[in-house]
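Predict both folds.
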Amino acid sequence: MSDTEEEENSGKVIKITLVGEPLTGKSSICNRYLGGSGVSWGGTQGAEVSAAQWAGARPPAALQLCDVAGAALATTMLPNYLYASDVVIFVYDLTNLQSFEKLDMWIKSIKDIFESEPKKPLMALFGNKSDLEHQRAVRLSCVQKLSSEHLLENFKVSAKTGEMVNTAFSKLIARVLGVKMPVEVAAHRKSTDTQISETNAQPPLPSNDATNTLIMNRKMLRKIQRKASSSVCCVQ
């Protein structure tokens, strides 16, 4: 990345918004990416915001993850939760056909929201629970058709095992920043010079995804949370 690109990206906060039906694992995916166990108890109310840094850029890029409740599709708050999103991730449970079929409504609603916006967010499709591939209820051909029709980046992930979670986020963030994927991410190999630290400074749980390029620190968390507190996308 050039010096000019570094200066442009240094003050940028990348907002990633996860949407989809209830119980598809949006909160668990966020929890896993932030260094947790990938297990989240209880449903999301409104939208929950988390903050972090991505170490795949130089300097590290500030992130804001907005986890939107599955019930938000039927509310007038959805445009507020989506405000200023750089990435929108549509999450479905690959063992639950209905969660996939409902994505048509999510995609249409969100495209309508951004129709008048000059800058459209990067959109992606996450099929969660890849660890339950033997229970798959969503045909791969249907997933490929949907992703092709709406030009969605397509990933199969597992919040439970961590499979592809960090890699998928890294690819999307790199696309937004216009930077190349870090070598260790592109090669899918283990790296000892990357780390995850949770907001409470507890040691991270192991992940099967070998490409952790996420760094959490309290200073950045406070900075972004202050910004989030004045944003329309905050916990309701």
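Second protein follows, with its predicted structure tokens after the sequence.
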Amino acid sequence: MDDKAKKGEAPVSYSVYKRIIDDFLIPCLGNKNIDKIDYAALKQYELDRAELMGKEPAYSTVRKHNVTLNYIFEEAIIRGFMTRAMKPELETTGRKGENYATFSIKEVNAILANFPAWILRGRSEAKREQRELLYDYVRILIDTGARPGKELLNLQWKNIKYKTKIVDMQPQETNAEGFLAEDESSQKPIEEYDEEGNLIEQIEWQPTVTLSVYGKTKDRDANGFDETFKVLKEIVARNYPDGKTTLKKLTESNDPGYVFRTRSGGKLGTSHHMFDRFLDEHNLLRDPNSGKKRVFYTKI
């Protein structure tokens, strides 16, 4: 793993595997030859690991430990320290993890409605830029369902593809004068005409955005729609004020620049702590039913 890291080929998960090796596998199994780790040794490892942790590990934790052990066994087979027939079968057990507290639709709307004013209350320009970027980040998370963290924060313009589809707008009810029936005071007719007097067809553009993200296990696509398209255009307008740089140019030219950067080029800092403070200020940090703390991984 260290050799791959030096070559720049190591995935993020390697740091997790190395921690498991240093904190658990070596203390518990380090005095055993690899070909002597059998069913009995693994059962004892389960007991020793629980004692080190001070609790029974969650199912997801056990799975990570087993993945790490399997990597070690495969390396031992390659190096001739054991045969494949000697490799033990690993069982994934452990306590079931708890679900994250969820947001209701009403609470999601409250989050989005309170962000703009919260941004303006930042005490410095740098703080306001960070909050502004967090707002972009949260909106795209909501729209795409991408995983919070490096998967989205490392997004580059070259990883984005989008297309737009023309959709006929539903005709709105009008009065005899051609104004919106729900707003009799409006002075703007519904119909619009070109210079030759032809009625301009009412259409709208419906965008679909594909973000190619790189997760901890494999690459995947996260799909967004109107909101993601809107946020990306806002970031471009804010970070490229020359007016010549557009979302279309950045994506089609495979620009390597990172999307989630402030106007001054800074990264989004400790976003989960910032989001915690935002939720706490707006009485949204804990679920009112369960009392559980909300986190970025909270389902919306």
